[in-house]
Model the fold of this input.
Amino acid sequence: MQSPRFPRRARGAIPRILAAAALAGCASRPINEPITQVDPKGGYRASTRMAKLQNNDPQTLFVLAFSGGGTRAAAFSYGVLEELRRTPVVVDGQHRRLLDEVDLITGISGGSFTALSYALYGDRLFSEYETRFLKRNVQGELLARTLNPLNWPKFVGGSAGRSELAADYYDEILFEGATFGDLLDKPTPTAAVSGTDLSTGSRLAFVQSDFDMLCSNLNTVHLARAAATSSAVPVVLSPVTFNNYGGTCGFQYPPWVQDVANPAGRSRPAGRALLRYREMQEFQDSGNRPFIHLVDGGVSDNLGIRAILEALEELEASPAFRQALDLGRVRRIAVIVVNSRSDPSTDWDRSESPPGFASQLLQSSSVPIDRYSAESVELMKDIVDRWKRLRELRVAQARLAGAIEAQANASVPRIDSYAIDVSFESLQDATERAYFMNLPTSFVLPPEAVDRLRDIAGRLLRQSTEYGSLVRDLGGKPVD
Done:
């Protein structure tokens, strides 16, 4: 039998492909550096960076939470940034943009790209993000690279994986090799994007305070690797592995731990705080856990507000924590949750036969995440409402005790709270709501869909009464 003949170009490629396959077992990942001693004032921390923000009111603590959801989430959260950018406010007699008041942006999966990109580029983002990421076929290009045998040495065998290949690609098209150390002097909000510990389900954020638990230096970690971690959908993409040096650098637990960890005198509420304390202990155990494998942050917190809920609970339960944070100057706390949750329509309930295996698998993972996300938003609103009612009660009690109003206000610092939920579920038009709810969770969308997501984000913000109150309280007027 005659041997098959290949074109000359194909024959030349065969040795390269064979060489790539031979080297596949050598694939290795970047190694995160250890630290020998925690520096509470060093590294990429929201607590130290907020005081350095320019044109930012220290009396306002302003947080944005960008959910997961692929390009849908990235475009929707970008639309919120655009709306904040064109909304004027007046602080201390100075005309500013509401965007300048943002202190912290949490990001999950698709939302992590917008959070990290704005932290890196600031206003430059608004002239480049569409072409570099939002209107790019990121998913198709990643698939092509994965199927190219010449790229196999980067993710086959060893400790690397498909997510490391994705990180290289994100660096090329968006992050330009930037690390968290490059963000230290940026006049932008702190971006806290998260991954999920595959073994325990714990959240690990890419901020130095969390990397202190691993006794590792975040400054040298690439932004692209953080984005790849936060969007590493299990099975579809590989976990991203970090070395754990926990327990070797003098890590000190935060002040709230002493108030919630003691069973005999535990302060309440303590449910989430206590769970977080246990997670912190697990990260410290590098003897049994020398490696941490992280997957998509949406597995543990698809809205990016779990850390916010924990912080609110810790503030309630711990006088020591309140004193350490020194909230005396804070007069308002605002949280905007940008919820990109979709709800594709199905016809399963029209048939006696149940859906197939793949559909069952996808639904069994997405339903708990979506229900937990909806519950988290309502819980945050409940906490904010409880704070308002508690303050009103304490002021009333002070008045009944004969204290003058000024004394009552001094003993109970006034903190106005705003919990703003931006989601497709708020849309009144059923056809419009169905359009956005049926957009896929992928890293490619038609340009028209990207533009509609940006537009609807601004419209939903303007329609929010809570958002309108925040803007007016800051001396501004919502954009018409």
Summary: The first strand starts at residue 60 and ends at 66. The longest helix spans residues 357-400. The chain has 19 helices and ten strands. The CA atoms of residues 154 and 165 lie 6 Å apart.
